[in-house]
Structures are given as C-alpha cells and as structure tokens.
Amino acid sequence: MKRSAFRPRSLFALCFVAILVQVACSRQEEGQRCVQRNDNEDCEAGLICVGSTDLRSSDGVDRCCPPEGSPVSDARCIRLAGGGNDNGNGNEGGEGGEASSTTGVSGAPCTHTSQCPEGTVCGPAGMCQAECLGDRDCDASNICEDNRCVPASSSGGGAGSD
Prior knowledge:
The chain has about 160 residues and is an alpha+beta fold. Helix content is about 15%, strand content about 10%. It has a domain at about 25-100. The termini are far apart.
C-alpha cells in the first residue's frame, strides 16, 4: 500500500524538476535579465548581455540587448553615452554618462520627437530617425539638407537632393 503513495509524489517531484530545469535553461529575450559573467549564453541569438553600468536604466540589472548601434525595442536597453570598455565595465572610474537619447544616435524608441537626439525626429515606427533623406520627405516649401528639412529659400538656391 505504501508503494502507491510513493509513486505520485515522486512523479510530481520529477515533473517539478523538469520544469525548473527548462525555465532555468531558457534564453532571455530583449530587455530581460542576464548575467554578464555567462558571456552571452543567457540571451537569445542576436542579443548580447549588456552590463547595468552601460545602460540608462538605474535598476542595476544586466540585460539582454541588441549589439550597440542596432535599433532597440525595449527602453531598458538604451545605453549610456561613452558606453563600455574592453572588460564590459562601462563608464568605469567616472560618473554615469548621459543617456543615449541626447547623444545624436538615432534608433532609440520614442513616442515624441522631444525624446529623440537633437537633429532627429520620432518616426512612424516609434524610433528616432533622421528628419529626411531627400526632398520628398519634406513639406513642399522645404528641401532636405544634412538630413533636416529647411526652407528652400535659405539653402543658397537650387534644388536639394532627392
């Protein structure tokens, strides 16, 4: 009789351990926690484990994020200006840097242009981007110069790039 009571408990314990192992071994998506000393093994393919000292977020948590220069879709992956060094200890020996939203780097997530670096706008995909690439991106009375829409009369004459 004792034998039948033992089987359900051991089966439950075995299932619990199997679930725990699967959860512990799963790879993290963008913005989720990781441990830098595990290199990038905690993160999904295409993501790297970025140390908390390199991130704008002040929660002290290392996060799985796209490589620097790639667009981010999770605001917790916005990097600080002056980012890391060779050993992953960004801003070592100094105060925290400015957030990348003020560094002139486009690609940060946004809902308003005021959240974007100077010279960029919040685009239709919710990411900071250049205001224009060609004249067609500007209103009819403006042309595109240095990725900004400017009045056609102030450009020194002639049509801009298209």
